[in-house]
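Lab meeting, item 3. Inverse folding demo.
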């Protein structure tokens, strides 16, 4: 060992000089210890020294020889391409090592601490201490820390300094002995320098210095970058706030509070005034002996006059007012004129009457015609196709991002296909607690045994063969060309895919070294592999240093080439399918074999899993239809009661109690004694006849069959039109049409019951009070024996009119047809508006839904009407349901068997007795308005928190292996997706075009593409760009630098011929050697026009090597699109990376930020620049989704307003219905953020569907309200009471049908969706539609009646009321001018 510390003087002396061999045969030269004075070099050595180290070594003795200078020059040439772009870093690097090797004062700062014997037998240096002043160390590090290497999208410090974070780590990396680096150990003591030594104290160059030998460009020196105009992060624009509340929320809350306060105040005042008036009226009433006879004979219309009817549940009570027309009790007889008519209602009523009469009188002809047409529609099934490509499913054909993707694919080739595997520790069972619960500990995944196991797995994958014999090497991406290595990112690459040189004690240390300095462990494809690409869940120690060996997961990524060539793509797909099968088997074995859990995805996985049939859940669809069938069958026939019959269970109980009497002797002696037949024992129970004849199972089954037929016909029609089916259509349309279509079945059957009640064979006679007694059920076969005992004082005109079955069915359609038409048109229009959403999957869904609903309505007003007639004939003939060939004999009608059927079911009696009177109280109305106003306010506040996006995991089956993969992707991969900024329509062969792109030359535009991307990278919170960009133009022009001798080379004998990588250096010279003007950073003299194209085409085929990392073949081979004639560059791209994106919000914001950056660049440079990343095509919709939502919902509400106002005959009532529908949709939107539902194309279509379905909840009530009118003006003094009576009548008339036929059917149809295994169906269909049904029912049956009773328009009479008015008018000799 040589110690220089005892020398009396070290100034002007050397510590080492010349070379004394190497450590091994292939090792680098080692210096010799030398304790002597520096010497003057030879002229050739001096020239080489000045060329290598600069003019400061132009004279004077030095401590190095020519051989050392040549070695130094070779080392500089290796690092030159990495740091030459920044003169400060380059010159500091050269000064540092030139001083270390050649300084005449070397002995003053270098101290040899150990020596070794070289392969020549000479003593050589083994280790030294290199003392450097801190000022220079920091300056040196600062000048290099931001220098970028575009080819790796990283920094030079990662390559020359091992990713050092300060100058101590930088120097340590430079001084550590390693094969690629220093051949001996150089230590940099941080303790006090010995007194006999003087630390090296050079003046460091700064990247911001003004001299050309120091100043760097913005890309490599952030301190000189111009500041970009400030921008806010996407979706974080400043909004008005008052404290923690947004201004909108604050205004709504204050407004709501004032409204509630105003209501309470008004209520108290009105109550006080009313009580005072009542006391005054009581005094007046006591002073009068008589009142107007007219006022004594009729009660006030309105809520206060309804009490007299509460104890009578029969429909006959309604006829008291219908004798003179509805609402006629408000007027004196002399004022009773013909009710005003609405021509459209009359036209529709007559049209549906004729249609119903035809369908009823010619049922089999109707069946033949309709089913023939339906059969023709189903011929389209021959062109039935299912769309499975995710891009064609979820991306609009005219989407800007889709067009940009196609441009990118055509010019640069499709993006790579990735096969990615996440490996974690397999979860273990906690045997001490619950065997069914998995332990939730973050267990390190790496161990020696697991490493050996996984190396075997990767070996198996490399040897994996597809059925056609393709291996990984046949399909992988090889940046260095066909003979190059595959890009495989794995920790195995750090070990050279071989563990033979490592053991249980050394593997962890090597892995840690590779993770901290990837450049020392280059994989086969020769690109540094940063730890965040291959390790996940890396913990930190107390000093915030990563503990890589304790990582929770490691990631393996195979990059496979993609192509527009279908044959090449087919090879990749075939190998991926083989890999997927292998990994599927491995995932089931790895837990037992090595304690590893595997989550993976291949290039074919996403499309395969999305299109799996498991989401279809055929069982769920069948269960839904069965549930609906049973509900329809049981509820349609509940009102069929022949007499006061016992129910099924009561009949069985009665039979059981009487059965013992069969074995007792009868005590009845005289046959004249009347015996209750219900007490007579029988061998078999006497079940109610309605159980056999009154049920409507066959009719319900037919109605559901029509739903299926309408869906089938819609598929056939649109398949014929070329509209492809998607799996969402197959999964959702059956539920939607079932829920919508069955509603009309209930509406029609309930109205037919009412017609039968009034005009059937069992219609009741009027009571002694002049009104009707309770009539029988619409379809009863029992006629009262008292039918002839009618009081003489009853006008024969008031008697119920018997009508044949065909007439009753026709009247049923005449009354309910316009309501069905109203709801059908609004639903069809609303569904059709969903086709405005450009996403194909959503557009096709909207078209199929609209077609199915329309066809179902057509079938219901035609063939279902015919089926109603046939079922009615069956019932009146006492034939058994489902077995119409069996006819039950008529029972004897006894005198003591009074008719008790009321015509109203339990729901109807509840509505009549309690609900309608309670709802129409003034206080109740006010409370309802306040509650729904509060719901509206809360919904608007909640809407502000709706998020955008659609997690792709929701589109997968819940048991898909990709769900686990995406979970691991979010948890462990800390790398954002790559993003390319594509420039086109700019001539890069001209200087201005080059300056618009470049960044590393002094004449580049201040806000060029590369400069702007670098500036945006420095504010990732708003740009979502996290890595330096790969600037092809800078690397290309840098490749021409003659200082990089191994890059661009031409033949010395013929400069027009380029040298290849294997050509001898003696035969070649740098391309720009001796050029005039010389290559320089001002770009003067650099190639343009055809010379530019000549060089750039050579650069693109030059292999990227250690000697010339700036060559373009590996890094930029696909970054330029050359025209077919080779005369121009059509487009080029700049590659960078997004910050890690974890949530849908991150993806949406990253998309918006990239487009904002591209737009800014285009504006500043004049080039057409657009961003491209693989996920952009799926997130393009969110750039316009809010505007589309507003547009579509606005158009939908406008359509609802026009249709309802037109059909109701009142803009006033139409506006109210539209407002209630709008409030229903707002409520659904308010629930969305509470239930985890984001705004996307699917939820937008559901909102549009909400418009149509919400109308269905409102249409029947509104039309019944408008059809119960007397024509009384809105501003009439008795108008409020008249509206109350009309609403009471409407609620009693159609309320039960809306509740049981619309609300309950939809609940049953949708509730089954809760059982689906698809999260997409559960969240975006079950949750949204359940919210819609509940909200629609509340708004349609609570809010709408209240608002209409307060401000509804003047009504029109129904056909039946017109006929009664006509009879009354004729009896009173009024003039009649026709309907």
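The presenter then showed the designed sequence:
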């Amino acid at each position: 060992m040589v110690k220089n510390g005892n020398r009396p003087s070290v100034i002007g002396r050397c510590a080492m000089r010349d070379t004394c061999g190497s450590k091994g045969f292939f090792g680098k030269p080692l210096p010799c210890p030398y304790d002597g004075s520096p010497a003057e070099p030879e002229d050739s050595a001096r020239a080489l020294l000045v060329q290598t180290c600069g003019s400061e070594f132009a004279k004077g003795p030095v401590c190095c020889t020519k051989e050392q200078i040549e070695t130094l020059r070779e080392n500089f040439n290796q690092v030159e391409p990495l740091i030459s772009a920044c003169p400060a870093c380059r010159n500091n690097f050269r000064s540092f090592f030139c001083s270390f090797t050649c300084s005449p004062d070397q002995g003053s700062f270098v101290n040899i601490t150990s020596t070794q014997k070289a392969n020549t037998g000479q003593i050589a240096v083994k280790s030294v201490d290199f003392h450097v002043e801190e000022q220079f160390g920091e300056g040196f590090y600062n000048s290099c820390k931001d220098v970028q290497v575009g080819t790796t999208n990283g920094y030079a410090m990662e390559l020359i300094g091992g990713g050092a974070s300060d100058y101590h780590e930088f120097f340590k990396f430079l001084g550590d002995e390693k094969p690629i680096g220093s051949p001996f150990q150089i230590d940099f003591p941080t303790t006090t320098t010995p007194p006999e030594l003087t630390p090296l104290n050079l003046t460091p160059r700064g990247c911001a210095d003004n001299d050309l030998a120091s100043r760097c460009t913005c890309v490599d020196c952030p301190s000189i970058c111009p500041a970009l105009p400030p921008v806010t992060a996407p979706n974080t624009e400043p909004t008005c706030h008052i404290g923690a509340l947004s201004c909108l929320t604050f205004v709504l809350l204050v407004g709501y509070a004032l409204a509630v306060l105003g209501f309470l105040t008004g209520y108290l005042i009105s109550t006080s005034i009313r009580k005072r008036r009542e006391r005054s009226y009581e005094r007046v009433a006591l002073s009068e002996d008589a009142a107007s006879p007219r006022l004594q004979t009729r009660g006030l219309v309105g809520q206060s006059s309804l009490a007299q009817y509460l104890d009578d549940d029969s429909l006959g009570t309604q006829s008291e007012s219908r004798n003179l027309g509805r609402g006629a009790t408000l007027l004196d007889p002399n004022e009773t004129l013909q009710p005003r008519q609405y021509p459209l209602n009359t036209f529709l009523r007559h049209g549906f009457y004729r249609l119903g009469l035809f369908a009823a009188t010619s049922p089999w002809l109707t069946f033949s015609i309709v089913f023939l047409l339906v059969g023709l529609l189903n011929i389209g099934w021959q062109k039935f196709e299912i769309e499975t490509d995710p891009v064609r499913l979820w991306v609009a054909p005219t989407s800007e991002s889709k067009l940009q993707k196609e441009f990118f694919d055509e010019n640069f080739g499709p993006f790579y296909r990735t096969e990615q595997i996440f490996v974690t520790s397999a979860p273990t069972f906690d045997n001490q607690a619950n065997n069914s619960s998995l332990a939730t500990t973050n267990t390190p995944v790496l161990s020696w045994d697991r490493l050996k196991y996984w190396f075997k797995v990767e070996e198996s994958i490399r040897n994996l063969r597809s059925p056609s014999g393709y291996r990984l090497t046949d399909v992988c991406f090889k940046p260095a060309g066909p003979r190059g290595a595959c890009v495989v990112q794995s920790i195995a690459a750090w070990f050279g895919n071989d563990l033979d040189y490592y053991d249980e004690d050394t593997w962890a240390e090597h892995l840690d070294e590779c993770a901290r300095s990837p450049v020392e462990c280059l994989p086969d494809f020769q690109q540094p592999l940063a730890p965040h690409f291959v390790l996940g869940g890396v913990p930190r120690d107390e000093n915030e240093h990563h503990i890589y060996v304790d990582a929770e997961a490691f990631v393996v990524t195979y990059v496979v080439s993609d192509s527009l060539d279908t044959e090449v793509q087919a090879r990749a797909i075939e190998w991926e399918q083989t890999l997927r099968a292998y990994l599927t088997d491995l995932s089931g074995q790895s837990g037992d074999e090595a304690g590893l859990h595997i989550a993976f995805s291949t290039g074919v996985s996403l499309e395969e899993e999305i299109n799996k049939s498991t989401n279809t859940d055929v069982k769920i669809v069948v269960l839904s239809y069965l549930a609906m069938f049973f509900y329809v069958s049981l509820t349609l026939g509940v009102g069929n009661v022949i007499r006061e019959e016992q129910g099924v269970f009561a009949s069985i109980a009665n039979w059981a109690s009487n059965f013992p009497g069969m074995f007792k002797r009868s005590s009845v002696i005289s046959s004249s004694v009347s015996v209750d037949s219900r007490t007579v024992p029988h061998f078999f129970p006497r079940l109610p006849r309605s159980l056999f004849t009154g049920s409507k199972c066959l009719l319900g089954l037919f109605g559901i069959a029509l739903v299926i037929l309408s869906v089938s016909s819609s598929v056939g029609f649109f398949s014929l039109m070329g509209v492809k089916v998607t799996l969402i259509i197959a999964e959702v349309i059956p539920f939607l049409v079932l829920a919508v279509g069955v509603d009309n079945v209930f509406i029609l059957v309930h109205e037919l019951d009412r017609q039968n009640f009034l005009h059937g064979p069992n219609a009741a006679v009027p009571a002694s009070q002049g009104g009707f007694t309770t009539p029988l059920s619409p379809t009863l076969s029992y006629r009262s024996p008292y039918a002839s005992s009618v009081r003489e004082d009853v006008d024969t005109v008031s008697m119920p009119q018997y009508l044949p079955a065909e007439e009753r069915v026709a009247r049923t359609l005449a009354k309910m047809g316009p309501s069905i038409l109203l709801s059908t048109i609004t639903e069809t229009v609303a569904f059709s508006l969903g086709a405005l959403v450009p996403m194909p999957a959503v557009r096709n869904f909207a078209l199929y839904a609209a077609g199915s609903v329309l066809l179902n309505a057509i079938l219901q007003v035609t063939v279902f009407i015919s089926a109603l007639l046939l079922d009615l004939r069956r019932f009146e003939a006492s034939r058994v349901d489902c077995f119409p060939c069996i006819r039950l004999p008529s029972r004897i009608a006894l005198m003591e068997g009074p008719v008790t059927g009321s015509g109203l079911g339990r729901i109807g009696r509840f509505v009549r007795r309690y609900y309608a009177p309670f709802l129409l109280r003034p206080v109740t109305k006010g409370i309802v308005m306040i509650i729904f106003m509060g719901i509206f306010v809360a919904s608007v506040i909640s809407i502000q928190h709706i998020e955008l996006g659609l997690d792709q995991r929701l589109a997968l089956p819940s048991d898909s292996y990709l769900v686990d993969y995406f979970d691991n992707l979010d948890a462990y991969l800390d790398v954002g997706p790559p993003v390319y900024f594509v420039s086109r329509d700019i001539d890069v062969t001209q200087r201005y075009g080059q300056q618009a792109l470049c960044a590393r030359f002094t004449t580049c535009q201040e806000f060029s593409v590369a400069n702007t991307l670098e500036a945006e990278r420095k504010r990732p919170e708003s740009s979502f760009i996290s890595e330096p960009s790969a600037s092809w133009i800078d690397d290309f022009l840098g490749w021409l630098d003659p200082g990089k001798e191994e890059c661009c080379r031409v033949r010395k004998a013929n400069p027009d011929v380029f040298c290849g990588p294997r050509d001898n250096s003696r035969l070649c010279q740098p391309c720009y050697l001796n050029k005039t003007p010389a290559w320089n950073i001002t770009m003067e003299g650099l190639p343009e026009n055809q010379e530019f194209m000549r060089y750039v085409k050579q650069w693109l085929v030059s292999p990227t090597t250690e000697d010339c990392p700036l060559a373009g073949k590996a890094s930029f081979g696909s970054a330029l699109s050359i025209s077919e004639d080779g005369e121009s560059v059509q487009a080029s791209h700049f590659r960078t990376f997004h910050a890690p994106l974890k949530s849908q919000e991150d993806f949406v914001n990253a998309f918006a930020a990239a487009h904002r950056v591209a737009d800014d660049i285009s504006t500043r440079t004049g080039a057409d620049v657009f961003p491209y990343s693989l996920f952009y095509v799926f997130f393009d919709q969110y750039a316009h989704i809010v505007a589309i939502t507003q547009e579509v919902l606005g158009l939908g509400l406008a359509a609802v307003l026009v249709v309802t106002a037109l059909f109701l005959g009142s803009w006033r009532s139409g506006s109210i219905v539209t407002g209630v529908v709008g409030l229903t949709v707002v409520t659904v939107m308010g629930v969305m953020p509470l239930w985890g539902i984001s705004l996307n194309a699917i939820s937008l279509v559901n909102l549009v569907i909400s418009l149509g379905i919400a109308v269905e909840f409102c249409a029947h009530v509104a039309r019944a309200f408008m059809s119960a009118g007397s024509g009384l003006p809105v501003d009439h003094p008795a108008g409020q009471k008249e509206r109350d009576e009309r609403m009471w009548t409407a609620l009693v008339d159609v309320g039960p049908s809306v509740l049981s036929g619309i609300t309950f059917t939809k609940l049953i149809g949708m509730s089954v969706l809760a059982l689906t295994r698809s999260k997409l169906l559960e969240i975006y269909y079950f949750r949204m539609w359940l919210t819609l049904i509940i909200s629609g029912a509340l708004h349609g049956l609570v809010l709408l009646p209240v608002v209409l009773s307060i401000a509804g328009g003047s009504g029109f009479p129904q056909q039946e009321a017109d006929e009664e008015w006509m009879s009354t008018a004729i009896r009173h000799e009024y003039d009649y001018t026709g309907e």
